[in-house]
Specification:
Layout: E1 2-8, H1 14-27, E2 40-45, H2 61-73, E3 77-82, H3 89-95, H4 98-105, E4 108-111, E5 115-117, E6 130-132, H5 133-137, E7 140-144, E8 148-150, E9 154-156, H6 158-161, H7 170-178, H8 182-196, E10 200-210, E11 218-228, H9 231-242, H10 250-258, E12 268-272, H11 299-306, E13 309-312, H12 322-326, E14 332-335, E15 338-341, H13 351-355, E16 361-364, H14 367-375
Parallel strand pairs: 1-12, 2-3, 2-7, 3-4, 7-10
Antiparallel strand pairs: 1-11, 5-6, 8-9, 10-11, 13-16, 14-15
Helix pairs in contact: 1-2, 2-4, 8-10
């Protein structure tokens, strides 16, 4: 059995947010249950890229502020850290409002750098992981994800947020090594989760994102703060709350098959506000291709004809080059201020869509996803 806390919260202003955060943390035992006097505590928000808080791409700075104050009350020393995929860390924290908030609160904020080989748990699948040393050196990690959809992994919630402890462009390397098999990538995310071992996960779902996340979806007012020790149970609970089919969620499939966390919604105890009090209807998740259904010998064929491919939209592309920077197999180049993709080299990881600041990467649906959409009408 795992406990997941759900708390109604209308917005980020005033005492309402602080009261909601305090209530959520108290329902799992209070901050002193996780933080001892003198502990150095990493607050790990989602700082994917440089977007204003209103875009709902990143964890709201007021949520981070509130959690930091609770850590200080418990006697800990909080610091904020993440590793954005491409953009400079200084630009990201400025645009997201995180830098100003940290200065106001006197908080240390820094990029997660200096990858070191981590000591892996016995049930890890991958044999080698390099994690940012500040994350491994922290006495406590508090995970502060944003509730968002994800065009490749369906949802990005508690477990996936910890992928930010992988340093910068090494994320793209892992995308490449995991290929286009979402279950393999979900297995990697679980290994990161088991290695980093956050003490507590607190989800910012006051305003979330639906549609073409994680960077170009639509803001949605969901009015929820969630908290749990078991980040897998929290992620499963959010899918339950949003009516997201678990069978389509790669993280659920990987966690269920490996027995990591609580994946049975019937074994999750909800405290705080009951799930049925959150009236969230028709939450829009992206359509995913069915990847990994053919033997490897057919990989070239499946990528060419069956699987959706990223298409630069010339009306929106500015030639900024961020897609080319993140593309580990080197399938993207910029010519005449427009992105060009070499599809024979493209592994369909869709990192380009994830980091594009101009929503200029669209998808041409492959045969598989078109058939799935047809049969699910």
């Amino acid at each position: 059995m795992s406990r997941v806390v759900l708390v109604h919260c209308e917005g980020y202003e005033g005492e309402g947010l602080m009261n909601a955060l305090r209530r959520a943390v108290n329902e799992v035992g209070g901050m002193s249950n996780f933080v001892k006097p003198g502990d150095r505590v990493l607050l790990k928000p989602n700082l994917l890229c440089a977007r204003e808080p209103e875009r709902c791409v990143t964890t709201h700075p007021e949520v981070v502020r509130g959690v930091a104050r609770l850590v200080v009350e418990a006697g800990g020393t909080p610091f904020i850290g993440d590793s954005p995929a491409v953009e400079q860390f200084g630009r990201v924290i400025a645009k997201t409002g995180m830098r100003d908030m940290a200065r106001q609160e006197g908080l240390e904020i820094g990029e997660l750098t200096e990858p070191v080989v981590a000591s892996l748990p016995g049930n890890a699948v991958f044999k080698r992981l390099e994690i940012a040393s500040p994350a491994l050196a922290a006495d406590v990690i508090i995970n502060l994800p944003k509730l968002k959809t994800h065009c490749q992994m369906l949802m990005t919630l508690g477990v996936k947020n910890l992928f930010g402890t992988i340093v910068a462009l090494r994320k793209a390397e892992w995308h490449y090594m995991a290929g286009t098999d979402r279950d393999t990538f979900a297995t990697l995310l679980l290994d990161v989760y088991l290695t980093v071992r956050p003490a507590l996960t607190i989800l910012d779902g006051i305003w979330g994102m639906e549609g073409r996340g994680p960077a170009n979806g639509r803001p949605r007012h969901l009015k929820v703060i969630a908290a749990a020790v078991d980040a897998v149970a929290l992620d499963i609970s959010m899918c339950h709350l949003l009516n997201v089919p678990l069978g389509q969620f790669p993280l659920y499939r990987a966690a269920h098959s490996r027995g990591i966390g609580e994946t049975d919604i019937g074994n999750i105890i909800f405290v705080g506000d009951a799930p049925e009090t959150f009236d969230i209807r028709k939450f829009q998740v992206p359509s995913l291709d069915a990847l990994g259904v053919l033997p490897g010998i057919f990989d070239r064929l499946s990528k060419r004809f069956l699987i959706s491919k990223p298409i630069p939209d010339e009306d929106f592309c500015t030639g900024c080059g961020e897609c080319a920077q993140i593309c580990w197999p080197g399938a993207i180049r910029v010519e005449d201020k427009k992105a060009i993709i070499e599809y024979d080299r493209c592994i369909r990881c869709y990192c380009c869509q994830e980091v594009c600041p101009h929503n200029a990467i669209q998808f041409k649906k492959g045969l598989l996803v078109r058939l799935l959409n047809l049969f699910n009408r």
